[in-house]
Amino acid sequence: MSMVVSLEKNGRSFLKDQAFAFDFDGVVADTMSLFASIGREEFGLTDLYPEKITDYDLTRCLDVELDTLIQIITRVVSADYNHRLAPLPGAKDILQKLADKSGPLLFVTARPDGESVKHWLKDTLHMGEDICEVIATGSFDAKAEILQNRGKKLFVEDRLETCFHLKEAGIEPVLFIQPWNRRPHGFHEVRGWSDLAEFFGV
Ligand SMILES: [Mg+2]
Question: Where along the chain is the active site annotated (predicted)?
């Protein structure tokens, strides 16, 4: 049975082999909601809501000065805002179930620094370094090599461009549906964590 055929059915084999890993922003954490609320509350962008973010490149979908976007993003990724960053519904319980079944989980983020993510996972999901590891690559395209080196064959990601890049590198992407990735693709996609639980069979 080929990898693609088994992927269409479920992710159990990837779970058994510990061959999966997760993106963080937009998959585990509801990062765009924090982005939008900082924009509304601190920058007066009163009509900024996650549904308006229809492209991962924010300059393409929002009529907001680049300098302002950068200031908001700087706040979003700062540990000072960690307490306002919510998990996406179901992420906490299902990640715990996956960790119970497979052992420590790997998160690979394109953030340049993984410290705030590590603290958030510990404080918000109660996942310490004994059950999870965070690797910050600083670039989207660096994810594939990290995953290959760690023997990961499947990655849950919300940035469609990264999914195409991973697929080329032989990593099977699972696209986590978000308003900013609604363009044609041929990847397996999930609508939230209950779909992911079903996919992994937990
Ligand atoms: Mg992401």
Answer: 23, 25
